[in-house]
């Protein structure tokens, strides 16, 4: 509550501005891998998002991901539908019960012009964990493009299927706990 008040006060004083993320043009790409061999890649869409900027400096932000948009992009037909259905099931992300995931920036520390170390809280399946990752923001004609590549440990969010953190004797069927995300946000357009 205090953080929300501080951000609101900063907005009123003109110190920071909140900018909406263009959810149509922004892209989140995911990659999940088996320990031996195969990987799958796909996309997710933002339901909504904002960045807080003080001039050209990132100061905060929040994002809601629509988990029902989880799509595989490396398969087609029956196998694509099966994988997407399985990833949306309770074995993985339980999309019917948890239709959204969220990320709230708690700190954006400048590491150089347009470069940041971003720390924030990720909520998936009702569980919240703090993560940090590098990000860049560039501004062109009043539009910002923010990019980041990061990984998160799915097992911390009770996404257990194929995880050797929860099950023994999986052999070649172990799925890595880390899920890689490549994010490109378009803001202010």
List its salient traits:
eight-stranded antiparallel barrel, about 190 residues, disordered N terminus, mainly beta
Report what the structure shows.
Mean pLDDT is 83; it is low at 1-14 and 162-174. This protein has helices at 2-12, 77-88; strands at residues 17-20, 27-33, 39-54, 57-72, 100-112, 115-124, 127-140, 143-153, 178-187. The protein has an eight-stranded antiparallel β-barrel with strand order 2-3-4-5-6-7-8-9. 22% of the residues are buried. β2 (27-33) and β3 form a beta hairpin. It is built from two helices and nine strands; from the N terminus they run αββββαβββββ. The chain starts with a helix and ends with a strand. With 189 residues, it is mostly beta strands.
Give the radius of gyration: 18 Å
Strand segment tally: 9
Distance between the termini: 29 Å
Give me the strand/helix succession.
HEEEEHEEEEE
In what order do the strands lie side by side in the largest sheet? 2-3-4-5-6-7-8-9
Give the overall silhouette: globular
The fraction of residues in strands falls at over 45%
Derived from helix and strand composition plus strand pairing, the structural class reads: mainly beta
Average of pLDDT: 83
Uncertain stretches of 5 or more adjacent residues: 1-14, 162-174
Query: Could you give a short account of the major beta sheet?
Result: 8 strands, antiparallel, barrel
Topology:
Elements: H1 2-12, E1 17-20, E2 27-33, E3 39-54, E4 57-72, H2 77-88, E5 100-112, E6 115-124, E7 127-140, E8 143-153, E9 178-187
Antiparallel strand pairs: 1-3, 2-3, 2-9, 3-4, 4-5, 5-6, 6-7, 7-8, 8-9
């Amino acid at each position: 509550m205090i953080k929300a008040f501080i951000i609101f006060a900063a907005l009123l004083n003109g110190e920071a501005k909140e900018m909406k993320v263009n959810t149509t043009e922004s892209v989140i790409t995911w990659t999940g891998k088996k320990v031996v061999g195969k990987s799958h890649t796909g996309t997710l869409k933002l339901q909504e998002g904002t960045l807080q900027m003080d001039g050209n400096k990132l100061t905060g932000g929040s994002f809601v991901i629509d988990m029902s948009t989880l799509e595989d992009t490396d398969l087609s037909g029956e196998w694509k539908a099966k994988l997407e259905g399985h990833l949306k099931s309770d074995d993985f992300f339980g999309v019917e019960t948890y239709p959204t995931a969220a990320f709230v920036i708690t700190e954006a520390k400048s590491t150089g012009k347009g470069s940041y170390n971003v720390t924030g809280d990720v909520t998936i399946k009702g569980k919240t964990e703090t993560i940090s990752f590098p990000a860049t923001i560039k501004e062109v004609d009043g539009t910002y493009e923010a990019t980041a590549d990061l990984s998160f440990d799915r097992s911390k969010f009770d996404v257990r299927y194929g995880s050797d953190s929860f099950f023994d004797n999986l052999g070649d069927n172990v799925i890595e706990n880390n899920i890689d995300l490549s994010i490109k946000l378009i803001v202010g357009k």
